[in-house]
Design brief:
The structure is a single chain. With about 425 residues, the protein is an alpha/beta fold. It folds into two domains: about 1-320, ANL, N-terminal domain (Rossmann fold, 3-Layer(aba) Sandwich); about 330-430, ANL, C-terminal domain (GMP Synthetase, Chain A, domain 3). It has twelve helices and 21 strands. The strands form five sheets. The chain has a nine-stranded mixed beta sheet with strand order 4-3-5-6-7-8-9-14-13. Strands 10-11-12-15 form a four-stranded antiparallel beta sheet. It has a four-stranded mixed beta sheet with strand order 20-19-18-21. The longest helix has 22 residues, at about 10-35. The chain is globular. The structure holds 5'-O-[hydroxy(phenylacetyl)phosphoryl]adenosine (DLL). 5'-O-[hydroxy(phenylacetyl)phosphoryl]adenosine binds near residues 212 and 336.
């Protein structure tokens, strides 16, 4: 099912022409309204009207997460707040979260893109769509919500209700479509088995999953647990939220909505733009966003792009599955954190050394993070009360700062260093 045939199946030369036209107006608006971009363009002699090709675009320096942080909260906005009708922020809190805003037009585009995502998975107005992404500052819940309403589906906004509740609702309300992170889908699948509910008792037929890396193995596990077709969907708050790229029924790459974004793949070390088909870091430029236009934003996600025609008749390019990042962001149940953020929290805790190691595994379908922390030499390892106090202090602080529940294991000094005194910071035992 193609939601917007005109734009999704446009001849490639028309897409490319439209991208350049929309790019120019985006650059113009950014230059006039965002002091950061004005300074940047002036410094590099970029004149928006003279950017007439993709080669010209390549002369503009990248925008990074650091740029956004430096301009926190509203410095990258290209419209006054009075024109902003919604604000979200990134789920990870690297010191300062990234704040993103939407004008009324941006929300209209977002809903349209989410309608395309749902239609690509064969979801239509006769479906009942259960949205089990967080509704809040995270873009997942609200993003899907408005798209599902636009296609006329019946929307059940369960947000992050516990797996058992999700199951009761999907059974009683006759949900046909489940939307959530793949790891949450696995937790729901585990509960289904625990409750000995036969998937045939449910009316589910489709699932759309994203916001974290997953694999064909996880796809197979989800499909066989619920008897559904599972689709991959990709996006990031800085660019839009969900609604950047998504799988069609061919499940052969994620179609990127090129009437709204220009993609490039670069070598993450040199910044050089790579030819079609090569693997590197995805860089995106928004070409319709009004509130917060992003020019050459480095996503940190490693993928490749192909422009070969797809049997579904959509003409926009496809991204390969996203499994790696250029930074060491770890994603625990959809929440993005950098190991250094954990380090920063630990440095506030008394009686610990600045040595820690993160152990991630999947327990009963749920991502679980255990932090091994070296205690200070001065602490008596046999003093159970002190150890328990340190442990609970760490857990509470991490929850307060990063919003995740962790397990903490205290270890003796100098036990985490491996050969050469180096600590392997992350040990990820989740098999993708
Ligand atoms: O995760 C937006 C989203 C919501 C996408 C719901 C899909 C569904 P952020 O919290 O800003 O936004 O995180 C964006 O998550 O740069 C990727 O590293 C990762 N990511 C998102 N989707 C996928 C996916 C949302 N399908 C970051 N596969 C991105 C792999 C994904 N990684």
């Amino acid at each position: 099912m193609i939601w917007n045939r005109e734009f999704e199946s446009m001849p490639r030369e028309d897409i490319l022409q439209m991208q350049i036209e929309r790019l120019q107006s985006t650059l113009n608006r950014a230059y006039k309204n965002v002091p950061y971009y004005k300074k940047l363009f002036d410094k590099h002699d970029i004149i928006p009207e003279e950017v007439n090709s993709f080669e010209d675009l390549r002369k503009i320096p990248f925008t990074t997460k650091a740029t956004l942080r430096e301009n926190y909260p509203y410095g990258m906005f290209a419209v006054p707040l009075r024109e902003v009708v919604r604000i979200h922020s990134s789920s990870g809190t690297t010191g300062k979260p990234t704040v993103v805003g939407y004008t009324r037009n941006d929300l209209k585009h977002w809903s349209e893109l989410m309608a395309r995502v749902l239609a690509m998975a064969g979801v239509g107005k006769d479906d009942t769509v259960q949205i089990a992404f967080d509704y809040g500052l995270f873009t997942g819940g609200f993003g899907f919500h408005y798209g599902a309403e636009l296609i006329g589906a019946s929307v059940v906004p369960t947000s992050l209700a516990a797996p058992e509740k999700q199951i009761h609702i999907m059974r009683d309300y006759k949900t046909t479509t489940l939307v959530c992170s793949p790891s949450f889908a696995l937790s729901i699948a585990d509960k289904l088995r625990e409750l000995a509910i036969n998937p045939n008792e449910l009316t589910l037929r489709v699932g759309i999953f994203g916001s974290e890396p997953w694999s064909e193995k996880i796809r197979a596990a989800i499909q066989s647990a619920f008897y559904i077709e599972a689709y991959d969907t990709y996006g990031l708050s800085e660019i839009m939220g969900p609604g950047v790229a998504s799988e069609c029924e061919k499940k052969n790459g994620l179609h990127l909505f090129e009437d709204h974004y220009i993609p490039e793949i670069i070598n993450p070390d040199t910044g050089e733009v790579l030819p079609m088909g090569e693997t590197g870091e995805l860089v995106l430029t928004t070409i319709t966003k009004e509130a917060v236009p992003m020019i050459r934003y480095r996503t940190g996600d490693i993928t490749s792009i192909v422009d070969a025609p797809c049997a579904c008749q959509r003409t926009c390019v496809r991204l390969s599955r996203i499994n790696n990042r250029t930074d060491d962001v770890i994603i625990i149940h959809g929440v993005k954190i950098l190991p250094a953020q954990i380090g920063a929290v630990l440095s506030m805790v008394e009686h610990t050394q600045p040595h820690y190691q993160l152990h991630i595994q999947r327990e009963g379908g749920m991502d679980a993070l255990q932090i091994h922390v070296e205690i200070a030499e001065s602490v008596n390892i046999d003093e159970v009360k002190t150890l328990m106090r340190i442990q609970s202090d760490i857990k509470q602080r991490i929850f307060a700062e990063l919003g995740i529940h962790v397990d903490v294991k205290l270890v003796e000094p100098k036990t985490l260093q491996g050969k050469g005194g180096k600590i392997q910071r992350v040990i990820d035992k989740r098999s993708n």
